[in-house]
Amino acid sequence: MNLNKIQNKIYEIRGFKIMFDFDLAEIYEVETRILNQAVKRNTDRFPKDFMFRLTEKEWQGMSSQFVMTYPQKRPKTAIPYAFTEHGVTMLASVLKSKKAIKMNIAVVRAFIALRQFAVS
Predict the structure, then answer these.
(1) Rounded CA separation 44/74 (Å)
(2) Is 22 helix (H, G, I), strand (E, B) or coil?
(3) What is the mean pLDDT of each run of 10 residues along the chain (120 residues)?
(4) Three-class DSSP category at 20
(5) Engineered SS bond to 87: which of 3, 31, 51, 62, CB 3.0-4.6 Å?
(6) Residue 6: CB partners within 8 Å, gap ≥ 6?
(7) How far is 102 from 96, CA to CA, in rounded Å?
(8) CA-based Rg of the chain, rounded to a whole angstrom?
């Protein structure tokens, strides 16, 4: 997956740049439930500034943007987890496949590129 495609999956909520669990699962080529299970088994690695669940109101507002982009991804009633840049980095420690590590590096680079773009 190229840098632009990854950057297009980065959103801003609560002042954080985030990626959703379902987008990360797609990038890492695992099911969303598998990604979330790995995180739940390691909750001590994901404090609130690394990962949080959106409120229903936040998800309703965000999901309206996904009508065309994500028609089959997730029912509107299933509220996703949001991972900050630090949470995405921590995912590499719980998803240990070679693909996950490789894609994790690409995702971190996408966050860095966005930050550099915002500064310039």
Answers:
(1) 26
(2) helix
(3) 83 93 90 92 94 91 63 66 91 80 82 79
(4) strand
(5) 51
(6) 27, 106, 107, 110
(7) 10
(8) 14
